[in-house]
Amino acid sequence: MQKRKNKYKFDTLQIHAGSRPDPFTGARQVPIYQNTAYVFKSILHAEALFNLQELGHIYSRLSNPTVSVLQERIATLEGGIGAICCSSGHAAQILSLFPLMHPGDNIIASSRLYGGTIQQFSNTIKKFGWKANFIDIDDFKAINKAADSNTKAIFCESISNPGGHVTNLPKVAKIAKKLSIPLIVDNTAATPYLIKPFEFGADLVIHSTTKYMSGNGTSIGGALVDSGTFNWSKNKKFPSLSEPEAGYHGLRFHDTFGPYSYIIYGIAVSMRDLGMTMAPQNAFHTLLGLETLSLRMKQHVNNAIKVSKWLEKHPLIEKVSYAGLSSSRYAKIVKKIFPRGAGALFTIALKDGYEACKQLVNNVELFSHVANLGDTRSLIIHPASTIHRQLTKKQLIKADLALNVVRLSIGIEDPADLINDLKQALDKRIQN
Amino acid sequence: MEDNKLRKLLKSLKTIVIIGASANPVKASFFVGRYFILRGVRIIPINPKYEGQKLWGEKFLKSIQDIDSQTNVDMVDIFRPSNEVYPIVKESIKYLKPLGCKTIWMQIGIKNQRAALEAKKNDLNVIMDECPKIEYQRLFGELRVAGFNTGIISSKIDL
Predict the structure, then answer these.
(1) Contact A1 B34 (CB under 8 A)
(2) Is A55–B145 a contact, with Cβ atoms under 8 angstroms apart?
(3) Minimal Cβ distance to B147: which of A56, A259, A263
């Protein structure tokens, strides 16, 4: 298929892609279709919809006009063929794997993924008969070694949460290609403004839209984007897409729908049977946020650079783990694939251990102590005792999350105010 | 082809010849044919495998040469491997251009530059590696429903 070219730039697309004036009322902003079911024009029309011969709204578990706008907007911003929005980032993870996996199958996953994802991949997916082999994603030999004939995907984050590590996507994509399996990239912490993983060889992208995309801390949501370029019929690895589907009278999704097959399967089978639907109201809030994504990301990145540089020189700080610093071991790859910056999420290690972390978190007045990231507000959390609490000691070490580590998600406030807040909180420790 | 031109082309279709048409209801060529039938377009199915059988009230024909010379044809839609396309295009120029055929369409995954050049030399539109059903769905709003990237941006109420 021809690559869809768009003459408009990112700042324009984040406002316009996927939406048009409402054809019935002229409303310019996207209407919230708080609606469950959609009237069929005739029996013939209904039959065509259920046979997947035509596309149309049937029932909001599968699709909804407000959510569709968000789907197309995210697909366009990522440069993908299409997207499915779902109830959360965690739902997007399962949604991305569902067409690929069968009992006995496994994935290769980065050991530095977000703690909640490590949890989902180490325990919950076992109930489906799936397994994750965790490896250091910087160790390319380890990736190859972890693969076997039942490996169906490589899963990593573009910028890891919370360590602020970045993945060498061109290298990892090359390995995935060699193994004939898709590379799935969680692009939550970077957003398509900072990096479009498809440009570096990724096949699928997922998001927690809860974070930078919405930016306003109002709505939980997730998205799965397909590049449309993976050949699902090359071997027998992906029977859900290449072999006859019993639920649709022996239809072979990839044979019939070609590059559109993964997304159509996602709607027709995954969303139908897993029901991890995004609410239209949440899609609307996320769309409002997306309109200013690039403006916010610029400020997030600028602030993160200023705050991290200041922290790096502070006597109580042992280490700042931010890929945007020239001292980072990722500086070279950041320059190559993240020309607009390495995000605004990073960790700091405190010299005086857990007690100092506790004091810092308790003493800040502007930073909010919450389990979220990518908000316009600056956020702080101690991962080992909260979001990564379920991890074993070994898993924590592999994730670079010792007890003396605090995660910061830098917001878009005035950077001087953020530095002053951290200064007064750290000063209290010095004074004691 | 530019979107506005493609919109006009797709809306003007009255008869499509499908090369490699299938009677199997889960095959892509069946999907495409049925989609246009429901929009009032006549489909002439060509496939020697089904010769003599009927699909949507039309007889399957063995080849392009079997199309009645009184028929009006607007487009040929090809569901055959890329390396089989050249003779199909040659035949289309010879037998279908006199019947009004203006467009050669090759489905997703099908490309043949030599055939495309030959068709263009004979003033035919050529579209390769795309699907007319999906393009119709993209340009007239249906693809948008399923969250696909349509590339369509407009501040106008009527497209």
Answers:
(1) no
(2) yes
(3) A263
- C-alpha span between A161 and A110 (Å, rounded): 11
Residue A86 pairs in a beta bridge with: A222
Pair of tokens at residue A278:
């995004």
Integer angstrom CA distances of residue A177 from A173, A234, A306, B150: 6, 12, 38, 27
Query: Could you give all domains of chain A from N- to C-terminal order, each with its CATH number?
Result: 10-289 (3.40.640.10), 293-431 (3.90.1150.10)
User: What distance in Å separates the CA atoms of residue A128 and residue B156, rounded to the nearest whole number?
Assistant: 48
Q: Is A83 on the interface with B (CB under 8 A)?
A: yes
Are A369 and A341 within 8 A, CB to CB? no
Query: Minimal CA–CA distance to A52: which of A233, A245, A274?
Result: A245
**A194 close to A167: Cβ distance less than 8 angstroms:** no
C-alpha to C-alpha distance for A404 and A350, rounded to whole angstroms: 5
Domains of chain B, first to last? 3-145 (3.40.50.720)
Q: Which of B27, B8, B22 is nearest to B136 (CA)?
A: B8
Q: Which amino acid belongs to residue B137? A: Q
Chain CA centroid to CA B22, Å? 14
Residue B35: both structure tokens together: 């989609």
pTM of the predicted protein model: 0.95
Which residue among B153, B157, B158 sits closest to A8, beta carbon to beta carbon? B153
Residue in B25, B109, B151 closest to A4 by CB: B151
Cβ contact, residue pair A16, B153, below 8 Å: yes
Q: In tens digits, what is the pLDDT along chain A, a chain of 432 residues?
A: 766 677 899 999 999 999 999 988 999 999 999 999 999 999 999 999 998 999 999 999 999 999 999 999 999 999 999 999 999 999 999 999 999 999 999 999 999 999 889 999 999 999 999 999 999 999 999 999 999 999 999 999 999 988 789 999 999 999 999 999 999 999 999 999 999 999 999 999 999 999 999 998 999 999 999 999 999 999 999 999 999 998 898 999 999 999 999 999 999 999 999 999 999 999 999 999 999 999 999 999 999 999 999 999 999 999 999 999 999 999 999 999 999 999 999 999 999 888 999 999 999 999 999 999 999 999 999 988 877 777 777 777 776 678 899 999 999 999 999 999 999 999 987 765
Task: Measure the CA–CA gap between B154 and B156, rounded to whole angstroms.
Answer: 5
The H or E element containing residue A4 is none
From CA A267, how far away is CA A274, in angstroms rounded? 10
